[in-house]
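Regression test case RT-17, inverse folding.

Input:
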């Protein structure tokens, strides 16, 4: 089974094409909706990072009813949740795409939860997508809830602390053209990750949302190959 986890302010639709591809290859697939996402932006402000993690856990238990091996596949913050979750649950394998190790250094981050009381939302920058057609169908909140950025900071600290505990085989993907999460984040995660079986896959002609980018078929095939290799070794 494959459990798909979308990103910060996003929706399960970010992972839809990838999920359809995996299902056509014969896998049972479930895409979770993170708490506070895909409704109204005020719901995200009220959610906490633990709520996002619980949504992954709920999906895990649902899929565990029909699959004896579960692979968790996450994009961006979904990759952060995937890694944090795999430090506690026996994932058969993990795939993390465009995943941050930390947010860019910004002195405002130290006071972000206080700032959120006066400025509840921050405008988003321009998308770095290299596929303008797929971008038209990408759904996410129009802004970043400031309080939720504080939650993301806490979640990232949790992930970093738990990376050495992870033992599941891991495939880490990132594009050198990602303008949203610096590619150097991949090497930092790889370095700290406890898994003995870990692989880095670099893409060259994609933006941040890899499952909807021009090289998505490469990502789909690499994910399927990774899953099959792990299944055969067991």
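Golden output:
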């Amino acid at each position: 089974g494959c459990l798909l986890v979308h990103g910060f302010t996003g929706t399960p639709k970010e992972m839809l094409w990838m999920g359809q591809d995996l299902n056509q290859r014969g896998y049972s697939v479930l895409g979770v909706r993170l708490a506070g996402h895909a409704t109204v932006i005020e719901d995200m402000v009220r959610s906490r990072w633990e709520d996002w993690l619980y949504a992954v856990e709920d999906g895990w238990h649902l899929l565990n009813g029909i699959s004896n091996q579960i692979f968790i596949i996450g994009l961006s913050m979904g990759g952060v949740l995937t890694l944090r979750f795999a430090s506690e649950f026996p994932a058969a394998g993990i795939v993390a795409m465009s995943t941050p190790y930390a947010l860019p250094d910004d002195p405002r981050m130290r006071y972000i939860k206080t700032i959120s009381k006066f400025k509840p939302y921050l405008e988003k920058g321009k998308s770095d997508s290299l596929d303008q057609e797929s971008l038209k169908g990408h759904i996410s909140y129009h802004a970043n809830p400031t309080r939720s950025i504080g939650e993301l900071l806490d979640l990232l600290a949790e992930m970093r602390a738990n990376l050495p505990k992870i033992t599941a085989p891991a495939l880490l993907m990132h594009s050198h053209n990602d303008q949203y999460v610096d590619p150097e984040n991949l090497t930092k995660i790889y370095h700290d990750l406890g898994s003995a079986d870990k692989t880095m896959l670099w893409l060259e002609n994609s933006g941040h949302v890899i499952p909807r980018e021009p090289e998505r078929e490469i990502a789909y095939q690499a994910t399927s190959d990774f899953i099959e290799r792990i299944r055969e070794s067991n």
